[in-house]
Amino acid sequence: MVADQLSEVFDLVEVRGLLTGGIAMRGPWVSRAAVDAPLKFFAMVYGRARLTIDGVDGPIELGPGEVAVLNNRSWLEIEGGSGDGPRREVVPEADFSSAGLTSADRGTDDVLIGGRVDLNTAGRALLLQALPPVGHIRASTTAASDLRGVLDRLFDEVTGNRMGSAFAIRQYGQLLLLEVLRAFVDQAELPPGWLRVLADERLRPALRLMHAEPGRPWGLEELARAATMSRTSFAERFRTVSGMPPLTYLNRWRMLLAQRALRDGDVRVGSLAAELGYASESAFSTAFKREVGESPLRYRHRVRTALAARSSRAGDA
């Protein structure tokens, strides 16, 4: 199932959707800021707003239940509201329990929630390549009803002042990101990349094989047969949809699995090489360094040192 493979990739690249702030305004308003993360998203919970971003011709109109995802953009301007009077400059509320958000009127206010997507190094390479510069999830799409439901429940937690709301808001940030990516797939507005190839019905049987047994020496003939396609048609379609040949995809999938194993466990490099289908430890180490930029042991040491430092800082906070 595509959902299972998407969950698998999410776990490997440590995708986290983090809510960072919100706006609840009545009357004319505007908010301007530099974009401080490679991947940002904005969800229009209620009301309407116009989003202007560098590199895009004209503003994007956001209606209730719609989301915009910004991929490697530099700055943004969001404006909303109507009526006479000066347009107020707004700074988003970082505290979701603030009076401005908890007292918002769903019938009259513009309510906008923003967030960022955190990923590990491998995830940044995968997701940034898989998404367009700006994605607009429209309310008219099939998947938008599920997205609307998450937004409603999220805002209920923001305004409800219930026990455990901070934890619930973090979890809904994750669900919101998942529904956004599902909606991207539903709209079929994806550039070549792993997200698009996971959604491709014709290629899915071959993907299942590679994901289920990554260490097996898969050949084009066998993968094409699983997809009920000729070898040439399969190779051409795979390259068009994913942006890379099938066996390059397989190698990158192996490298993602290797990074998780080195990060989270104490497996020996030689054992990991054999498990992932490499003839020798040196062949695996060469492939790993070519893909990741450092040797497996250096990668393990660096990542674990960084994780320990992060845990220490969290403990001191």
UniProtKB/TrEMBL annotation:
Xref: SMART domains = HTH_ARAC
Which InterPro entries does the protein's record reference?
Answer: AraC_lig (IPR032783), AraC_XylS_family_regulators (IPR050204), Homeodomain-like_sf (IPR009057), HTH_AraC (IPR018060), HTH_AraC-typ_CS (IPR018062), Tscrpt_reg_AraC-type_HTH (IPR020449)
Provide the GO MF annotations for this entry: DNA-binding transcription factor activity; sequence-specific DNA binding
Which keywords does UniProt give here? DNA-binding, Transcription, Transcription regulation
Q: Name the domain of life this protein comes from.
A: Bacteria
User: In what residue span(s) does the HTH araC/xylS-type domain sit?
Assistant: 204-302
Any Pfam family: HTH_18
Name of this chain's protein:
AraC-type DNA-binding protein
Q: Which organism is it from?
A: Microbispora rosea
Taxonomic classification, please? Answer: Bacteria, Bacillati, Actinomycetota, Actinomycetes, Streptosporangiales
